[in-house]
Amino acid sequence: MKRLLALLLALAVLTGGAYLLSKARGFQLFGTVVARVETGQPLVALTFDDGPVPGQTEQLLGVLAGRGVRATFFVTGREARLHEAELRALIAAGHEIGNHSFSHERMVLVRPAWVEDELARTDAAIRAAGYEGPIPFRPPFGKRLVVLPWVLDRQGRVTVMWDVEPDSDPNAGAERIARDAIATAEAGSIILLHAMDDSRGATRDALPQIIDGLHARGFRLVTVSDLLAAGDIAPAARAP
C-alpha cells in the first residue's frame, strides 16, 4: 500500500509539474522563450492572435492605420488559407505576420513530425500571400512541453509569449480591457489581444483607447521582431 501511495504521489507531482511547465511564460526546456524584453527604450509590442477573419480584420486595420501603429498578427495556417485576401491586407498595411500553428490545436504530447508539418504549412500559407519578413511563432494557448520547444530550437525560432493579457476574461468590457492594458504595460511588454472572434467586440472597441493610453504614457508601439532586436534578442528566424 505504501508503494502504491508513493507511486500515486510521484505521478501527481510529475503531472502537476508538466502542467505548470506547459503554461510557463518565461521558461521552456529548449531554445529561447520571450514574454517580455529587457530594454531601456519605451517600446511595447501589440500582438493579436488567431484569424485573419473577414470583418474583424478590416476593423482592426482601420484603427491601427488611423493611429500609425504597426502590430504583429499571429495567424493560423487554416484561416490564412481560407481568408488570403484579409492576410494580404495585413501585409500591405505593413504589419508583421506570425505563425500560430495551422490547426490551433494544443501542441503538447505530440510527435516532432506533426509539429514540423504544422509550422511548415502555416509558413507556406503566409509566404503564399506575399509576406517576406521574419515569421515569429506563438504556440496556441501558450502551451508547450518538450517536443515543440525542441523543434523550434532546431529551426532557430524564438517562442513568443506575452506578459500583458487584458482580455483574458472574455466577459470583460472595453473600459476594463483598456484600463488593464494601459496600467499593466511596461517598457518591453508584449501585449496579447484576442480580437478576431465575433464574441470579442469588447476587445475591438477597447483598441483605440489602448493605443491612445499607451501613447499618452510615452510608449511607442512596435512589432515583435523590432522589440526583440531592441533587447538584443535574435529576431525570429526567417522561414523558407
UniProtKB/TrEMBL annotation:
Domain NodB homology: 42-222
PROSITE patterns for the chain: NODB
Source superkingdom: Bacteria
Name of a matching Pfam family: Polysacc_deac_1
GO molecular function: hydrolase activity, acting on carbon-nitrogen (but not peptide) bonds
GO biological process, any: carbohydrate metabolic process
Functional note: Is involved in generating a small heat-stable compound (Nod), an acylated oligomer of N-acetylglucosamine, that stimulates mitosis in various plant protoplasts.
Stated family: Belongs to the polysaccharide deacetylase family.
Alphabetical list of PANTHER family matching this protein: GLYCOSYL TRANSFERASE-RELATED, POLYSACCHARIDE DEACETYLASE YHEN-RELATED
Name assigned to this protein: Chitooligosaccharide deacetylase
Provenance organism: Pararhodobacter marinus
